[in-house]
User: Fold this.
Amino acid sequence: MTSQAERLKQFRGLQAPGRLLVLPNAWDAASARLAAELGAEAIATSSAALAWRHGYADGETIPAEVAFAAVREILRVVEVPVSVDSEAGYSPDPARVAEFVCALIDLGVVGINLEDGREPPELLADKIRAIKSAARANGADIFINARCDVYLKNLVADEAKFEESMRRAALYREAGADGFFLPGTGDMAVIREAVKRTDLPLNVLIGSGVPPIAELKAAGVRRVSAGALISRAAYGAAQRAVKTLLADGRYDDIFATANDCPGFNGWFSG
Assistant:
């Protein structure tokens, strides 16, 4: 089995200039293995989907021990690099966030998403510095994908969003971030200019109105993720199947996709 350091090197290479890493976010061992079997070069978790999977709401309500157990299950069944959506690090205290992330490194995780949300961006910068310092003290490292929520959470007036996002990109880069995540916009003019304005790998979140992956790659985007959308598609199919079974006494929606279920027993029997 490859070491965390070796997988981290691989993960960085997947986001090198000219490359585009596509991440179909997972929420448990089965969804992670499914993505890997279908050719995903790395696995990223979705905080929302992972929380729902265990009966918690998104927004750092899932207990850390439950999240760690889920990550262990994913790492057990895939060999590709794994990055974990860590929301805001489950604490406003940079030292505690660093402790949390170092525990993920010990599990074998190679990357995290860390978001600024509605907090001052300087707080995220402090968390990034604390993580990098603590990791170095342990002779380790991790890829920090700094998520800027200016567009996603409509934090400033429209005409100020781009410059504020780029200010944060520079702040996070200086603090030691390895990537810059700008969810909430599919505007190609914004995306192209963001690629020009930061040398950090730019991560775009898929969504309605976001151009196809080929166009994003041509614009210089180096990472595309699905967030909770794939889990929502899966649970949406399950909801339709259950509704037709209970309300209509029919099985059509069950049979529509049941035969597409992969051979989990074969994958997990080794």
